[in-house]
């Protein structure tokens, strides 16, 4: 139980920083959607290019985050040498990547569909290179169990990013209208969405300076033999990561290329804005992962932790189902996060949230092949799931538009999740509480149907009241049936039996 308490405490800290950070970052969504008209396609450009950067980040880290935790906790390995060697490798490949992009910026910009805006491409190339390098530094903080510094730096980036976006999308445009000659030195309306990428570059660069202490670790040395072994372990994780991130971004990368209408960026912008509301599920998954990954690899030194892994899965499913119901229950309020121009895309939210939940389950299932060093299976599962997603996008987007993107993600994640479970039970069997999970899921599905009916048949306030009651009922069901309140950090002491 002490292990579960530690996991819960770390998840709470990482989760709090992620929740606060993502909430603050959400302020950019209304800012962009209210300042960038849907018809202009500007938000579609942002959605498209950030999909590319997400894919490139996975490629440039090439599985070294997970590899670091595996080898730093491996008997007979020197954690400092592992850290230093990985830091040097990722640093070198990041610099090489930026050099190649700058050397071929013209052809690359044209191929991506932005021949008139090469600055978008090179600025994001530098950002993704810095992010890849920082990923190892952040992993080191997690390894050292320093969640406070981790959270502080994440929030520093987000706070600075939001402040500058407010300056360049609200304050300076207003001042420019009053005196263009004076403020034109700081602001040019023709730059438009370009400010999004330039601000990101500035903020990412600033955060790097706060890793001065962790950067000293690069001097611990470089072990070629260790690097070969780590690369042998990590390349299947890279394949897994590429397939996994394509499951999240392939639709946004492919959409402008396969959608037949001239308003491809407009439609993509609507889809991208709507999915931001569904990202609460990705937020929970990410917070859980930050604490769970070092916890699992550290616990792997013990003989048998399968019961702990099964409990971790159960609580993950419980809270993601609760989050799903909360978002759907208060959709009539949450929709104001984006401008009404984008509301037509809200129908994808429950589909995308369900897909993200399956992705989180798949992540939890994935530890069987990481702990048994059979990471090639992860590449196989994610590759098959990615193929399903891409196939649905290529063949159905021309007819059904962005709805095909949402269902493609659902089908892709669902395929990878099921494959990982059935194969994993053969190599590393874990007694997951399937009946309990099925019962929770069925209960949530029934309540979701009630919430959907309430939203469609009742007025704003009656629907809000009914939906609140349904969410509370699910919460009470959790507490009564399974939630160990006494194990929750801080408040748990008030529920301990005397």
Describe it for me?
- This protein has 498 residues and is an all-alpha fold.
- It has one domain.
- It is 79% helix and 0% strand.
- It is built from 22 helices and no strands.
- It has helices at 2-26, 28-35, 42-61, 64-72, 79-103, 105-111, 118-143, 147-178, 180-183, 194-208, 212-215, 224-258, 264-278, 280-299, 306-329, 331-334, 349-365, 367-371, 376-400, 402-427, 434-457, 460-481.
- Helix 3 crosses helix 7, helix 12 (224-258) packs across helix 13 (264-278) and helix 13 (264-278) crosses helix 17 (349-365).
- The longest helix has 35 residues, at 224-258.
- The chain starts with a helix and ends in a 17-residue tail after the last helix.
- The mean pLDDT is 86.
Rg over CA atoms, rounded to whole Å, is 23 Å
Q: How many domain modules?
A: 1
Proportion in helices: over 70%
Structural class: mainly alpha
Inertia-based shape: globular
Write out key terms for the chains shown.
498 residues; mainly alpha; 22 helices; 0% strand
Give the arrangement of secondary structure elements:
Elements: H1 2-26, H2 28-35, H3 42-61, H4 64-72, H5 79-103, H6 105-111, H7 118-143, H8 147-178, H9 180-183, H10 194-208, H11 212-215, H12 224-258, H13 264-278, H14 280-299, H15 306-329, H16 331-334, H17 349-365, H18 367-371, H19 376-400, H20 402-427, H21 434-457, H22 460-481
């Amino acid at each position: 139980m002490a292990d579960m308490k530690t996991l819960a405490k770390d998840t709470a800290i990482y989760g709090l920083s992620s929740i606060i950070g993502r909430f603050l970052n959400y302020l950019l969504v209304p800012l962009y959607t209210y300042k960038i008209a849907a018809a202009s396609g500007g938000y579609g450009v942002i959605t498209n290019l950030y999909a590319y950067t997400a894919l490139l980040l996975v490629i440039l880290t090439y599985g070294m985050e997970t590899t670091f935790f595996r080898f730093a906790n491996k008997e007979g390995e020197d954690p400092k040498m592992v850290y230093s060697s990985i830091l040097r490798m990722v640093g070198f490949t990041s610099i090489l990547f930026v050099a190649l992009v700058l050397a071929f910026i013209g052809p690359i910009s044209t191929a991506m569909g932005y021949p008139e805006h090469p600055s978008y491409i090179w600025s994001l190339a530098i950002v993704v290179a810095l992010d890849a390098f920082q990923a190892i530094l952040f992993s080191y903080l997690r390894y050292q169990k320093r969640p406070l510094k981790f959270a502080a730096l994440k929030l520093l980036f987000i706070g600075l990013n939001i402040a500058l976006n407010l300056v360049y999308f609200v304050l300076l445009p207003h001042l420019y209208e009053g005196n263009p000659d004076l403020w034109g030195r700081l602001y040019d309306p023709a730059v438009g969405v370009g400010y999004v990428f330039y601000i990101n570059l500035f903020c990412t660069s600033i955060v790097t300076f706060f890793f001065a202490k962790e950067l000293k670790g690069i001097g611990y040395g470089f072990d070629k033999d260790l690097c070969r072994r780590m690369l042998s372990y990590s390349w299947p994780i890279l394949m897994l990561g590429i397939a996994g991130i394509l499951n999240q971004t392939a639709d946004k990368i492919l959409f402008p290329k396969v959608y037949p209408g001239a308003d491809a960026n407009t439609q993509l912008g609507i889809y991208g804005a709507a999915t931001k509301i569904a990202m609460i599920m990705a937020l929970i998954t990410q917070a859980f992962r930050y604490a769970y990954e070092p916890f699992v690899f550290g616990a792997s030194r013990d003989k048998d932790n399968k019961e702990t892994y099964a409990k971790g899965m159960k609580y993950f499913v419980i809270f993601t189902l609760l989050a799903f119901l909360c978002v759907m229950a208060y959709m009539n309020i949450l929709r104001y996060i984006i401008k009404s121009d984008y509301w037509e895309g809200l129908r994808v939210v429950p589909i995308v949230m369900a897909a993200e939940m399956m992705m989180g389950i798949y992540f939890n299932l994935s530890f069987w092949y990481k702990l048994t060093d059979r990471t090639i299976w992860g590449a196989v599962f994610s590759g098959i799931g990615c193929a399903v997603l891409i196939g649905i996008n290529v063949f159905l987007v021309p007819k059904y538009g962005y709805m095909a993107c949402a269902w493609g993600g659902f089908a892709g994640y669902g395929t990878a999740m099921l494959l990982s479970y059935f194969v994993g039970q053969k190599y590393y069997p874990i007694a997951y509480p399937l009946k309990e999970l099925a019962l929770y899921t069925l209960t949530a599905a029934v309540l979701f149907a009630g919430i959907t009916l309430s939203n469609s048949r009742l007025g704003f306030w009656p629907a809000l009241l009914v939906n609140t009651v349904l969410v509370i009922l699910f919460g009470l069901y959790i507490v009564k049936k399974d939630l160990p309140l006494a194990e929750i950090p801080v408040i748990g002491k008030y529920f301990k039996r005397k």
